[in-house]
Write a structure and sequence with these properties.
Low-confidence stretches: none
Distance between the termini: 73 Å
Order of helices and strands: HHH
Radius of gyration: 30 Å
Largest sheet: none
Number of strands: 0
Length: 82
């Protein structure tokens, strides 16, 4: 069942639609429907690519002692941290 609607197409898009209609001998309506079907079906069938992060051991900077919390805070925030 066809539904009637109004679309506002930008000039460059309408130009492409008209060109495709002339090239294929189809109506503007058919070109728009086909383009929407292809575009909407294309997005739903794609699986998103997995994003992976490669972990890298950076180690500790020389002079950092994880057992000395007060020293760590002073090193990060300066001597006036209190």
């Amino acid at each position: 069942m066809a539904k009637r609607t109004t679309l506002t197409l930008e000039d460059d898009v309408m130009s492409l639609v008209r060109g495709e209609a002339r090239r294929t001998g189809q109506s503007v309506k058919s070109v728009v429907n086909d383009a929407l079907r292809v575009g909407l079906n294309h997005g739903s069938s794609q699986t998103p690519r997995t994003f992976t992060v490669a972990a890298k051991d950076l180690g500790l900077r020389p002079g950092i002692d994880l057992d000395d919390i007060a020293g760590l805070i002073e090193n990060l925030e300066g001597p006036q941290h209190r």
